[in-house]
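Support request, please re-run this one:
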Amino acid sequence: MTGHRTESAGSRRRLSARQWTGVVGLGLVLLAALAITLNPTPVDRGRGDDIRAFLSVLHGMGLPESFGYLQLEFTANIIMFVPLGLCFALLGRGRKWWAAALVFPFVLSSGIELAQLVFLPERFADVSDIIANTVGGWIGVGLAALLPRGRTTVDAQEPFRGP
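Re-run finished. Output below.
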């Protein structure tokens, strides 16, 4: 007796190249972001001289002196979440998926900040991190929306007529 399959080979959904990029990218970037944000030791510990030197270089390039450590940290949080939003948005299609992509950075960042608050006494949970991360994720989602979409399916019974 043969087993029954609940879905035929033709009805299986295959991932597009765009979705594969999203899966692999999200996995890699998510691992890096979690390693950075959930490390018990603050990222900047022992790096004060390096941070001051970096800020000095930025100021020498014309960035106002008012741009200090807090602004640098906020900007770094935005930058860290851009690829997360981009890769997550590449995973799916449709309006519901875009809505999920817009909520994803907020939910992930809130979870990270909650974990820092509850489990990592040397880390500082901060609402401004949630804001920066969410904005960064939204920028990534916006970039994904700007990327061209390839042809996802071709009807085998209808010949391709070109552009």
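The longest helix spans residues 95-119. The chain has five helices and no strands.
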